[in-house]
Design goal:
The protein has 15 helices and 14 strands. The strands form 3 sheets. The chain has a 9-stranded mixed sheet with strand order 2-5-6-9-1-10-11-12-13. Strands 4-3-14 form a 3-stranded antiparallel sheet, with no helix packed on it. Strands 7-8 form a two-stranded antiparallel sheet. A hairpin with a 2-residue loop joins strand 5 and strand 6. The radius of gyration is 31 Å and the shape is elongated. Bound molecules: adenosine-5'-diphosphate, magnesium ion and zinc ion. The site of zinc ion has 8 residues, from loops. The site of adenosine-5'-diphosphate has 14 residues, from strand 1, strand 9 and strand 10.
Length: about 475
C-alpha cells in the first residue's frame, strides 16, 4: 500500500437557498406536499420560456470569488440532453464550455502548511425532479411496484463545484469537503446539509505509484450523501484498485456504486456505456454577463472565510486548536474574548470547555464582561467562575457581583484567622506535628468556614504549613 499514492477529485453539488427556482418563479420549500410548487416552465410544457434567477447567479459568483476563481464576463447556459422520468424536458439546463466561474484555487490549511486545491469550475444548473420508488421492500427502483415523481425539486438551482484531482487521501478529501461546506454555509448561499440532500458529492478516485507522472484511469462514485461514506468509499476504491494493479489486472474508467453494508464498490457502468449528452448552447436563454461593478461589490463584501480564520487563530493557539474553534463555530466568541484582553490559551480553554459545558448561547455571551472574570480567574474560586459563565449570555450580565467575591489571598487578612483556628484546635496541631499530615485538610476546612468560603485555598494551605512547621 505504501508505494501507492491516492489521487482524488470531487464534484460537489449544493442546492442554492434562493426563494424561487432557477428558471421560473415557483417557490422552493423543503418538505412541502408533493407537486404543489410547479408551473409550465418546471413541468416542461411546450413553449414555456425559462428566465434565469439573478439571485442564483450572484450566489454562484460569491462562491466563485471565495474559491479564488476567475468570473467569466460571458457565461453560457447549455442543454445537457438525456432521458429520465424525472427530467420532463429531456435535457437539463447546465453550463458547459463557458461556466460562470473557473480556474480557481482553494488554500486548504493543513498542519504543515497550505495545500492548494485547484478548482476546475463552479457553474450553475438546475436539479431534476425527485423519483420516489414505492411498494416492494427496498425503496430502490429494482423490486419496486411503481414509481412516483415529485416535481417540487425540479428546477431547484444547483451549484456544481469541480476540483482538480489534487486531493491525496480520503482524509484530505473529507477535510476539503467539510471546509467547503462551511464556506458555503457561511456565505449564506445554501444550507448544504448532506442528510437533507442539499449537498451531494461525486468522488473520483485513482491510485498511482509514488513519484509517477500523470494519472491512471479513475473510478467515479456517484451521489454520496454522508461524510462518513465519502471517506469509506474512497478507502474502498483505493483498496480495490491497488489490489487490481498489483494482480496485474486492468483498471478501467467506470462509474461505481458504494454499498455501505458490504463496504465494497460495485460497477454501475463502464466507459463504453458512458453517456453522450450532446451539449449545445441553450437557445431560450441569453448569456450571463455579470457587470464588473457587481463582481467587485460581491468581492469586497466577502467575510473572512474559515480557512483564513484557521490560519490567523493558529498563530495564537496552534493548528489543531484553531481547527476545533473554527469548525465548531466557536471562534467568534474566542475572538471577542481575546479582543477584550483574555489570553488566547485561556480563551480557547474557556470556550471549548466551561462555556460549552454550560450550554449557553455563544452568540449572546457578553464577552467584554465575561473577559473580566477570565482575566481575574486566579483570584476567583471555581464555583464562582462557573456561576458567572452560566449566566454570561443573559441580557445585562455584568462581572461586578462575581468579582466582589474575589477569593481572599491577602496574607495579612488571613493570618489572624489562621492563628485563631490553630489556637482552637490544639489536638490537631499535635497530630500534625507528630507526622500525620492528613489533618491539614481539616484545618484548611476550618479556615474556609471562618471566611465563608472566600479564602483562597492555595494560600491557606501554604500559610498553615509554614505556621505548623515553625
Ligand atoms: P467528466 O467531465 O467526465 O466528469 P472531468 O475531467 O471533468 O471528467 O473530471 C471529473 C472529476 O474527476 C474532477 O473532479 C477531476 O478532478 C477528477 N479526475 C479526473 N481524472 C482523475 C484521475 N485520474 N483520478 C482521480 N480523479 C480524477
Ligand atoms: Mg463528471
Ligand atoms: Zn415552476
Amino acid at each position: 500500500m505504501a508505494d501507492w499514492e491516492p489521487v482524488v477529485g470531487l464534484e460537489v453539488h449544493a442546492h442554492l437557498k434562493t426563494r424561487t427556482k432557477m428558471f421560473c418563479r415557483c417557490e422552493l420549500e423543503y418538505g412541502a406536499a408533493e407537486n404543489t410548487h410547479t408551473c409550465p416552465v418546471c413541468l416542461a410544457h411546450p413553449g414555456a420560456l425559462p428566465v434565469a434567477n439573478e439571485r442564483a447567479i450572484e450566489y454562484t459568483v460569491k462562491l466563485g470569488l471565495a474559491l479564488g476563481c476567475e468570473i467569466a464576463a460571458h457565461a453560457v447556459f447549455a442543454r445537457k440532453n438525456y432521458f429520465y422520468p424525472d427530467l420532463p424536458k429531456g435535457y437539463q439546463i447546465s453550463q458547459y464550455e463557458a461556466p460562470l466561474c473557473g480556474h480557481g484555487s482553494f488554500a486548504l490549511p493543513r498542519a504543515d502548511g497550505d495545500h492548494a486545491i485547484g478548482i476546475v469550475r463552479a457553474h450553475l444548473e438546475e436539479d431534476a425532479a425527485k423519483t420516489v420508488h414505492a411498494g416492494g421492500a427496498t425503496g430502490r427502483s429494482v423490486g419496486a411496484d411503481y414509481s412516483l415523481v415529485d416535481f417540487n425539486r425540479g428546477g431547484t438551482p444547483l451549484l456544481e463545484i469541480v476540483t482538480e484531482p489534487d486531493l491525496r487521501s480520503a482524509e484530505e478529501a473529507m477535510w476539503f469537503l467539510r471546509l467547503l461546506r462551511q464556506t458555503i454555509v457561511e456565505l449564506g448561499i445554501s444550507d448544504a446539509e448532506m442528510e437533507k440532500g442539499t449537498l451531494r458529492a461525486d468522488v473520483n478516485v485513482s491510485v498511482r505509484k509514488r513519484g509517477e507522472e500523470g494519472y491512471r484511469p479513475r473510478w467515479e462514485i456517484k451521489n454520496m450523501n454522508s461524510f462518513t461514506f465519502v471517506g469509506r468509499a474512497i478507502e474502498a476504491a483505493i483498496r480495490q484498485q491497488v489490489a487490481a494493479h498489483e494482480a496485474g489486472d486492468e483498471v478501467e474508467q467506470s462509474t461505481y456504486d458504494y454499498d455501505a453494508d458490504t463496504d465494497r464498490l460495485t460497477v454501475h457502468r463502464s466507459k463504453e456505456e458512458a453517456d453522450d449528452y450532446r451539449y449545445f448552447p441553450e437557445p431560450d436563454l441569453v448569456p450571463v454577463e455579470p457587470p464588473p461593478e457587481l463582481v467587485e461589490r460581491l468581492r469586497s463584501g466577502l467575510p473572512e472565510l474559515p480557512a483564513l480564520r484557521i490560519r490567523r487563530i493558529e498563530q495564537a493557539v496552534g493548528f489543531e486548536s484553531a481547527v476545533e474553534l473554527v469548525t465548531t463555530d466557536r471562534d467568534d466568541l474566542y475572538d471577542r474574548l481575546v479582543a477584550a484582553g483574555v489570553e488566547p490559551r485561556v480563551a480557547y480553554n474557556a470556550v471549548m470547555n466551561e462555556i460549552a459545558a454550560a450550554g449557553v448561547d455563544f452568540g449572546a455571551v457578553v464577552a467584554t464582561e465575561l473577559a473580566k472574570i477570565l482575566v481575574a480567574r486566579d483570584r476567583l474560586t471555581r464555583p464562582i467562575i462557573a456561576q458567572a459563565i452560566s449566566v454570561s449570555a443573559d441580557p445585562g450580565f455584568t462581572a461586578e457581583p462575581f468579582l466582589e467575591q474575589e477569593a481572599v489571598s491577602d496574607e495579612a487578612a488571613l493570618e489572624p484567622v489562621i492563628d485563631a483556628v490553630l489556637a482552637a484546635n490544639p489536638e490537631q496541631v499535635e497530630t500534625y506535628r507528630g507526622g500525620k499530615e492528613g489533618v491539614l485538610g481539616y484545618l484548611v476546612g476550618q479556615v474556609m468556614r471562618e471566611t465563608q468560603g472566600k479564602a483562597d485555598p492555595k494560600t491557606v494551605n501554604r500559610l498553615l504549613r509554614e505556621r505548623l512547621r515553625g
